[in-house]
Specification:
CATH topology of the largest domain: Nucleotidyltransferase, domain 5
Shape: globular
CATH architecture of the largest domain: 2-Layer Sandwich
Radius of gyration: 20 Å
Number of domains: 2
Bound molecules: adenosine-5'-triphosphate, magnesium ion
Number of helices: 11
Order of helices and strands: EEEEEHEEHHEEHEHEEEHHHEHEEHH
Length: 335
Amino acid sequence: MVGIDIGSNSVKVVELTREGGNYQLENIGESMLPSGAITGKSVSRGDMVSEIISNLVSTLGIRAKRVVIGISGEAVASKIVSVPKIFLRKDMEKFVPDLVSASLFRNVNGVNYSYTPLFRRNGRSKEVPVLIAAVSKKTAQGYKSSVSSAGLRARIIDIDAMALSNAYAVSCAVRGEKVALVNIGASVVNLSVLEDGTPLMLRDIPLGGQWVTLRLMDKFKITYEEAERIKCSIKGYGRYEEITSVLTDFATRAADETKAVLDEYGDGLTRVILSGGSSRIATMAHTLGEAMGAPVEISNPFQNIDVSDSRFDPEYIEHLAPKMAVAVGLALRGL
Ligand SMILES: Nc1ncnc2c1ncn2[C@@H]1O[C@H](COP(=O)(O)OP(=O)(O)OP(=O)(O)O)[C@@H](O)[C@H]1O
Ligand SMILES: [Mg+2]
């Protein structure tokens, strides 16, 4: 199955196959999007996005046409509620639209919504956690059209934070632990807290590495592309201290905002797993660990997936891995 993570900064593709309980990596790739193609987590230039997807998929030699894509940001809202088992069987269909309009999106007609009972190891409880998720129809359509113009079909539209949870389940879940997954991208932070493998909450914060890029553009009067380049390899441009100070400000801000959201759910966190392109900021993991008071590990979503050394350069995979957590989770969702 092919997972396509259409981020604000790049499109990331992962193709996985499954044999019994074993997963295998078949294809992986990333292609940068021009600035302005995705704005505010919506597709602004569908033509650009579909061209990038189409080129990436054909360069990788992917033949499958059915894919899973993800959405995050303000077009998505979710809530995990505890529902009596008996209610789940009988009345859920009637109950969900009211719940969506009361606590997710007032205009139920403008969103697609769904509910998913969540797996729990101790299944004896009379209550079941149920994920209620709603996605703006307009935004979802933008992503779906970009994919279909690239000759593919979005079989499932998932939530990025849920994809993160699925990647965690396969790569490094530890029985009984309470963990926070933090994916810091270009324009959003995707968050998921899980206890013993069951999500307690999924949330997005509208903040990402673009904050740094915009500050550097403004400070040095340079283009978006130059600012991105300097941010990602800060040596060689000079003005090292000014650049690191912007990066440090961002790390502090991202850690503080994450902590503010996680505080509601954060008691007794065993660890924090950090992913996304902005996890590469040198001080990010440390700053987040200090704020959360829990050890931070950099995500490796391929930990329990067979990755052939002869087909894939291990260094390339290692470099890309933290950015691929969402794409891996999307591919897993379709298997
Ligand atoms: N070495 C690096 N140092 C600092 N920032 C980096 C580095 N490498 C990548 N980034 C930043 O990571 C961000 C991209 O991360 P990612 O690919 O996870 O985002 P995205 O999925 O495209 O965006 P989003 O999910 O927020 O819409 C960009 O802001 C990029 O500048
Ligand atoms: Mg992303």
